[in-house]
Amino acid sequence: MKYANATKISTQNVYNNELRVDSLHSTFDLALEASGQTPIIIEVSDNIRCGDYIDDNGNLFTSHKNSGNKNAQQGEEPKKSWIQIRCTQAEKALIVRNLRDSEKLSEFMLNLAINEANDRQSNR
């Protein structure tokens, strides 16, 4: 076992703790000395290398394996429109805490908006 200094890289910090390994050390004390502005120190297995992406348990981070793949499955219609929502941190935290497993924040908010728009249209 060894110790890794890591940086959190996920934008969805609440439910997706993806970390990038910045440096590796044989002891916790050496990792603590080298931490600097990287306060996250995690015990990892010997197969982890610098630059790897790990989860908050020190395991190699696994995604759907099609990231950046031109052949990754696409939706039925390309999404070309943007909606930006501004809220407080407390409001976002409340929403994120109530997401279902593997549900994305953007999917939840879009479904909520579509359902509300459909309700309003049917009440006209």
Detailed description of the structure:
With 124 residues, this protein is α+β, with helices and mostly antiparallel strands. The chain contains three helices and four strands, in the order ββαββαα. The relative contact order is 0.14.
* Tally of DSSP β-strands: 4
* Rg of Cα set: 20 Å
- Separation, N- and C-terminal Cα atoms: 64 Å
Mean pLDDT: 80
Strand order of the largest sheet: 3-1-2-4
Tally the helices: what do you get? 3
Low-confidence stretches: none
The biggest beta sheet reads: 4 strands, antiparallel
Strand and helix order: EEHEEHH
Query: Could you estimate the helical fraction of the residues in percent?
Result: 25-40%
What is the global morphology?
elongated
Strand content of the residues, in percent?
15-25%
Features:
124 residues, alpha+beta, 4-stranded antiparallel β-sheet, 17% strand, elongated
